[in-house]
Amino acid sequence: MNSDRAVFLDKDGTLIEDIPHNVDPALLRLGPGVREGLALLHERGYRLVVVSNQPGVAHGYFPESALAAVEARLRDILTAMDTPLSGFSYCPHHPAGQVAPFARACDCRKPAAGMILRAADTYGIDLARSWMVGDILDDIQAGRTAGCRTVLLDNGHETEWVLAPGRRPHHTAADLAEAARIIVAQDQWAAGPGDPGPTSRGGGPP
Ligand SMILES: [Mg+2]
Ligand SMILES: [Zn+2]
Hints:
The protein is an alpha/beta fold. The protein has helices at residues 34-43, 56-59, 66-80, 114-123, 137-146, 176-191, and strands at 6-9, 47-53, 87-91, 131-134, 149-153, 171-173.
């Protein structure tokens, strides 16, 4: 499906259960509400795009090539659910890493917005009509910096709560199912009562 709207999704702790630095595809488990949430978003025409920090590459915990198997497994799971991913982006960098050439500052590690901006360019996504969902405030900051609206999954994964205007989520949700319901409701509200609905929406507003 070609759409200019997307929901950018953090991976660990948002789409799948967070096992730090895991790259064993067999251990991937979907998080709570993910099946239901992705089904709703896909039905309403949002592209689904993963944007994931993977500093384990820069730290030498696993080779970059290990991420291909993780991506393949996640794509298989989601395709089998009829909610395929449009994109899967990761940042392998960390400024305090050990492994060249990944041990450096970059513009893609969240809270920077590089992964979102590049995916928007690749897929023709309208960031003002799109959303970022994550489980920590760095995800929120990345989404806001890119010009998206944001939903924080308030599932206990954020522990530092360094709040600033650019890190304040537009909405919070208990899980991805609730996040999806908020996104759909907000966009329906924004579209107004005369909106014919997603099935007849072609090129966006005039
Ligand atoms: Mg996360
Ligand atoms: Zn990076």
